[in-house]
Amino acid sequence: MSDTGNRPEFRKPKAAVNYSSPEELFSKLPNRAGSHGYLRVPQADVLREYKDCADRDIALELPTGTGKTAVGLLIAEWRRRRSGEKVAYLVLTNQLAKQVMREAQNLGIECADLTGNKDSRHPAEVGKYSLAKAVAVSTYSNLFNVNPVIQESDVLIFDDAHGAESFVSGMWTVRVRKDAPRRLYSEVLTAIRPSLTDAQFRVVTDEDEFEVVELADVHASSGVVPAITAIFDRERDAEIYFPWGLIRNQIQACLCLVSTREIVFRPVIPPTHTHAPFANTKQRIYMSATLGGEGDLQRSYGITSIKPIRARHAEWGKRYVFVPGICHSEQECSDLIAKVWKAIAPRRALLLAPSFLTADRTFTRISGGMKPQPSKFSAADIEESLEPFTNSVCGILCLAGRYDGIDLPGDTCRLLIISETAAAIDALERHMRDHWKMGPLLRRRERTRLIQGMGRCTRDATDFAVVIMLGQSLLNALTTPALVQGFPEEIQRELTWGMEQSDVAKEHRHQLSDMIIGLLMDSDYRKQANESLEDITIEGHEERDDPYSQGAIAEVNYLRSLWDSDFTHALLTAREQADRTNDHELSGYRAWWWYLASIAAFHLGDTVSEIDCLKRARATRINSGFMDHLLRARSRATSVDPSDIDDIRAESIWNIFEKWGWQGPRFSGKLDEMLEGLSKPDDPTQFNIGLERLGECFGAKVFRRTEDGVPDVVWLFHDCCYAIENKSDKKPDGALSKRDVQQAKGHPEWVLANIAEAKDIPIRPIVVSDVYPDAIAEPFIEGLFHAVIEDIVKEGNRVASELPNLRAQFAGKEYGSVHGEFRTAIKTASLDRGTVESFFSKPLRMKS
User: Fold this and answer.
1) Which among 306, 433, 752, 757 counts the fewest CB atoms within 10 Å?
2) Overall pTM surpassing 0.85 (yes/no)
3) What are the tens digits of pLDDT across the range 426-453?
4) Distance between CA atoms of 267 and 169, rounded to whole angstroms?
5) 22-162+274-310 — its CATH code?
6) Long-range contacts: 230-238, Cβ < 8 Å, 24+?
7) Is-same-fold flag (22-162+274-310; 318-521)?
8) Between 3.30.750, 3.30.230, 3.40.91, 3.40.50, what CATH number should domain 658-839 receive?
9) Are 95 and 386 within 8 A, CB to CB?
10) pLDDT tens digit string along 735-765?
């Protein structure tokens, strides 16, 4: 007989305890901290509604300060205990993962720490998750990865779901950065050059156009796809190698986006249906303090259905909003912030911007006048902990595209700076906003990001922060009723209050900085502000259904068909959605759908359908220049329809309003530059600046050069070009010499040699002067045109009076809704092509 007396006893598995709901589970958790004695009303409301929801994809909205993390953890633990399911809770950074695990400890919920890489993770933690003994806490990058940590799951919980857009799309995005080592950017740009028009190539090689993103016609350009395939096939850099491996054989489903900073290859929607760790889970739960439209989540995660559950609760804390750009120049705004910086303690600020470049430029601009000089912190500095920033006494934390997923409560940070609009944070969004006039498509996500960003420093009901809004694009957005009226009432109230205070600076410029300093330093002063805030009445606003959200499902289905090379279904999907998109405001979206349909038709080899789709896209009068190029390339046509020229000119003038500002002093400053320059004919440099601004007012792309022997100013339009030689400083008794005349006559050759897109259009050399050729010059004047200074000054004054009227008439409107009306208004204001043509139509003659 064997002796069993000294052998270890077997452990009996504990009987599973089933709880009827996450709410009941909370009440039975034995090790809750004292701070978690009860559920808040919004938490309980959301948990009850979730319990009865069996949908595959759920979106939970709990505003800042209502305990979103606890809700996610309770759902995770309830699912794990009830069914023995494997549940993973995902966040943006390791620092946020630690924050979640601290919250789990306060609730008495055990978690498995799956952050970090395979070398830093403890095998025991992996085992706890694999056996469903604990809820896994990890980062998005550990799921959206070719070798993910979270291989299998039953439930995935995405915290700060909007903030993960770049992680999701990035898995299928090849991004070639210009500042990367070696010359890969230049090599790829050379390879795709045949797919760019001359105008596009000029833009993407012009450092002043750093915000512009062009769409390259790579698929229809012979040899381009094989060329880029050869380049990427030999790359071993992880940022290229892994995403290229995923899209290489589905390149037909990808767009190529090009700017001065990067070249991007990516599908229009991330094909998450091909990523088993994401696609095969039973349920996905997306959590956010501000959900916005469900369509944005569908686009970001490549899903076709989602059920929102929203907690009804006001935004926490007080935000004292200021928009100094209403009356201050860019430099004056920087000076204002520098004055505030000097007066406050501790000196800490959070700077949010849509891109790294904008964040860097804003930091450089505002920090230049700060005393003492602030330290600059980036996302990399706070990946593991916020302490490097929160322990600093003089620092600015600069984050790009990160409007969610950072909490700076109380005195850790009271000053928040938001630079430029949040409508577009990646290359595709910037291209769609600027070229396809899809402000309405981006409006809801812009609003969502702004709400999220404004709440980063107000984390509970008693918290407060000063929010300073900077940048012309953000000023344009905040004065657009369609955007502002969709904000929660308390934020509308704060914006209205902020606009009113910012307007004070028109009369008393120093008062704005004094207000901000007082709000940050004086509690009694804040009480006065709170009273004035409560006096503001906001009319209730019921936001209408977002038609762009309704199109999100079609976008996902289109991408899946294109990815699977089912071009027939992709074409059908795109045509059907284009036909359903018939609101005037949706013109840009409709044009985009017809363009997507043309891509599917091209891959089908159906040239007739492709040209038909492009014609329908062009008929929307959006992105007219690009559509005209594609149509002429496909149909081998050489001439441009005059109606298309008018549309292109209208878009160009509209873009000047966007650039110079629908609101604020920048617009009038540009007109003042024009008038001041034109008033100084004796100073050729200043007069040339005046000519430059005048050309921009007509919608021209203007080149102003200072070298000898080149045109002083060139006005380039889609169908014609004017090369201007300025001789405004000639004395009244002087004359144009043979050298002057011959120099002007040679300008068309210079234009052809230096501006590629002018090669197929007429180039007219213009001499601007009040004097005439001398006898020696007479034989050489044939083919030259003449404009006298008085006429140019009159035209400048006339334009300067017309543009403000147009600005006032169309401010706050969407181009897609009013493009026909705007084109008519341009003609009525004599800003059309005929005006410029007649203005520069007088041949140069001898003095009579």
Assistant:
1) 752
2) yes
3) 999 999 999 999 988 888 899 999 999 9
4) 8
5) 3.40.50.300
6) 231/184, 231/187, 231/188, 231/191, 232/174, 235/184, 237/180
7) yes
8) 3.40.91
9) yes
10) 999 999 999 999 999 999 999 889 889 999 9
